[in-house]
Amino acid sequence: MANALIQKLDVIDRGNLADEYLAMAYNVEQSLLLAGAVPGKDYTLLDLYKLAQPLVIELFRDNSRQMKYDIPVW
After folding, report:
1. What is d(CA 73, CA 16) in angstroms, rounded to the nearest whole number?
2. What is the pLDDT tens value at each position of the chain, 74 positions in all?
3. What count of other Cβ atoms lies within 10 Å of the Cβ of residue 4?
4. In this structure, are residues 14 and 74 in contact, taking their beta carbons and an 8 Å threshold?
5. Per-residue pLDDT reduced to its tens digit, 19-33
6. Which region, left, alpha or beta, applies to residue 40 given φ > 0 means left and ψ of -120 to 50 means alpha?
7. pTM for this one?
8. What phi and psi, each to the nearest 5 degrees, are found at residue 73?
9. Is there a contact between 28 and 48 (Cβ–Cβ < 8 Å)?
10. Which of 61, 59, 1 has the alpha carbon at shortest distance from 25?
């Protein structure tokens, strides 16, 4: 698998916009990598954030939704 553009976070602060956005972009990238995408060729860092945006907006729109991450949450 190719090197990811976004490195795995050590911990995220749930509810913190910057952390949630970065964690969501990380998860989008992991999905792309599993599908065989190549960073820098098939997508950019900005693409990851654009793809994560509607997901993050939905999280903040409905506080009852919780995304599961493979990153420790505090």
Report:
1. 11
2. 569 999 988 888 878 889 889 999 999 999 999 999 999 999 999 999 999 999 888 888 876 666 666 655 54
3. 14
4. yes
5. 889 999 999 999 999
6. left
7. 0.81
8. -115, 140
9. yes
10. 59
